[in-house]
Specification:
The protein has 278 residues and is mainly α. 40% of the residues lie in helices and 0% in strands. It has 6 helices and no strands. It has helices spanning 50-60, 101-125, 129-134, 148-172, 214-230, 250-277. Residues 66-106, 138-170 are annotated as: Disordered. Residues 96-106 have a biased composition (Basic and acidic residues). This is Coiled-coil domain-containing protein 137 isoform X2. Residues 139-148, 156-165 have a biased composition (Basic residues).
Length: 278
């Protein structure tokens, strides 16, 4: 026999309602029609919303606060005088369900041997294994032994580094680090300061044209007495100083103009040659 499926419902299968068979009229009158968007019964009074009523009732209810039971804290072992660490916890043995006496005794022996071995290891190497398990141990790296030759090299290197630092500081130093110029408010400088002291890095070799030679003094005296009075007017002129055209004589002006024209012509010739080459 095959498996019967669920019967399919048709339009004839309808729910049967319990009604009064002797009632004559429309059946809709029996149902209670709930008022929706209807006018208020009394305009002076306003009904409270359902949620507000529930909230007020909830406030009036007594507060039943359940007292939480405090958990018993973990009791740490007592530390006596002279002890650096607490004593290890003594294991409590209890026979498990389905465990034979032989297996129970073996387990007791194994756990006690582990505790003894742990204590011996801690005493031998002076290590707290409980702290290692918690991750409260800082590992110190073993220092490598350095040979005497290497130590000497390190000392020499440090001395060289100190000398290099001092040399760098001396090069950067200008000599004015300690000097401070306190400028008052409204103070004005009418001219730059005059340097009387010779700078440290100045060279002793005099620049060309600045040496006071005897020949220069003789030429200077002759020119100041003779040439300047006759040719260049009342004003005195030093060696190497230029003179304006109006102070020159007619003959000197012609010579200067000729030299000027020659210089211009030579410059033009040089320029033409360069253009041809390019």
């Amino acid at each position: 026999m095959g498996r019967l499926g669920k019967l399919q419902k048709s339009k004839k299968h309808k729910k049967i309602k319990a009604i009064d068979p002797f009632y004559v009229g429309k059946r809709g009158k029996d149902r209670e029609v709930k008022p929706v968007n209807s006018k208020p019964v009394n305009f002076e009074e306003q009904e409270m919303p359902r949620k507000v009523v529930e909230l007020m009732e909830f406030k009036l209810l007594p507060v039943n606060r359940k007292k939480k039971k405090k958990r018993a804290g973990i009791q740490e072992p007592m530390m006596e005088k002279g002890m650096t660490k607490p004593l290890p916890a003594v294991p409590k043995f209890k026979q498990r369900k389905g465990e034979s006496e032989h297996a129970f005794f073996n387990r007791m022996d194994r756990e006690t041997q582990e505790v003894i071995a742990k204590a011996q290891f801690e005493d031998k190497y002076k290590v707290d294994l409980n702290a290692i398990e918690k991750g409260e141990v800082k590992v110190k790296k073993k220092k490598k032994k350095i040979s005497e030759r290497k130590r000497e090299r390190q000392k020499e290197r440090k001395v060289k580094q100190k000398i290099q630092k001092t040399n760098k500081v001396e090069k950067k130093a200008t000599g004015f680090e300690k000097l401070e110029d306190n400028v008052k408010f409204g103070e004005v400088a009418m001219e730059p300061p005059t340097l009387t002291a010779k700078p440290k890095q100045a060279s002793d070799i005099a620049k060309p044209g600045r040496k006071s030679l005897l020949l220069k003094e003789v030429i200077r005296d002759n020119q100041s007495h003779n040439i300047n009075k006759s040719v260049f007017g009342p004003k005195s002129r030093e060696v190497g100083q230029t003179v304006k055209r109006k102070h020159l004589s007619f003959a000197q002006q012609r010579l200067v103009d000729g030299e000027r024209e020659k210089a211009i012509e030579t410059y033009r010739l040089m320029k033409a040659k360069r253009q041809k080459v390019s």
